[in-house]
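Lecture notes, unit on protein representations.

Consider one protein chain, 183 amino acids long.
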Amino acid sequence: MRVSPHWRLSAWYFFYFAYIGAFAPYFTLYLQSIGFGAADIGILMSVGPVMRLVAPAFWGWLSDRAGRRIGLAAVFLLHGVAYLLAGLPLPEPAIYLSIALFGFAAWSIPGIMAAAVGDYMGPVHAVAAFGTITFVFGMGQIAGPALAGLLAEITGSFASSYLMAAGMAGLALALSLTLKPPR
């Protein structure tokens, strides 16, 4: 069965916000639950925004040079590693690396997706296609935090939510590698 690039891009956008939604809303609560104090959390949470200062230019460059498939795959790989580092019982430096990787890659997908929609749908259909994938993205924004909260409630820890997010990032990575170059 052949799936159009439009629906593939929609699926990636859904996964992106479903697992980002599992990570971001609860991260400070998770840090508190594993023993971080308020001052440490404040310092840690400042790492992500600093990483975002240089990240957009890098991700745009990579996506333009290596292609949307490789750009998406690289982002999903970094996200998956960030979530694994947060979800596994590792020493404290793993949390710092997790937030740095997350910050560096977190907001890269919207730009890559906008470029990919233009590449695959063409200028005539790009706006409508971007509207569709943004709608699907919104469903991910709703599903991610709800599923993460439910998992945390069932297991008693947000670690399970981060491991689930890592699995979703891995699935998105595998799917991104199936993207063929535009015609």
